[in-house]
Amino acid sequence: xxxxxxxxxxxxxxxxxxxxxxxxxxxxxxxxxxxxxxxxxxxxxxxxxxxxxxxxxxxxxxxxxxxxxxxxxxxxxxxxxxxxxxxxxxxxxxxxxxxxxxxxxxxxxxxxxxxxxxxxxxxxxxxxxxxxxxxxxxxxxxxxxxxxxxxxxxxxxxxxxxxxxxxxxxxxxxxxxxxxxxxxxxxxxxxxxxxxxxxxxxxxxxxxxxxxxxxxxxxxxxxxxxxxxxxxxxxxxxxxxxxxxxxxxxxxxxxxxxxxxxx
Length: 263
Known about the structure:
Blueprint: E1 48-50, E2 64-66, H1 124-134, H2 158-180, E3 189-191, H3 194-216, H4 225-247, E4 254-256
Antiparallel strand pairs: 1-2, 3-4
Helix pairs in contact: 3-4
């Protein structure tokens, strides 16, 4: 099936012929009719003819004869500043280095006098005021306030004052209770003395050391249910002893009086 002859929407669009722009023909800047320099074209035998040894464009230049020995005729040899690209002699101007120029102004002599009598009508007060009004204000850098310059420097904070007042009231209430040896309203309670508290703490610490020693000597691998139960019992007893020692750290301790019947 030929798709070029089949119906297509692209056939409705008219095709426009585009012409390719051609570049300008290249032409050399050199003369194409100038004979080649030092050409040996057409030479035969031991004596070779060299054409246009000077490189000039004139075609009527007589050829130079160069033998195989390499010697040339000194009368036909190119002389200094006689070539095609160097026909003019350089100027005899004095060479001056760029660094030799004066970098700073010349020091004035004693004959040089300064310009005197210059006057101006500019009002510097008004111009200074206008310049200050129209100038953009600089951004102010706010430095952090030093703690020493604050009004509250060296004073006790309010939350510490409140805590100190509460502790003071508590100490005063405990001192009054200790002085009067006050006991709670229940008649079957009595206060423990310092000797009894010390004795209880000593016994609890001794028992805790024994239980801790037994716990440390146990094996890491618990294979039987008896070993697991023994470990749990030791941990539970150590926890009870630690809680009891924490309770004995209180300032006032009361216990039931065994000599009086309970209510």
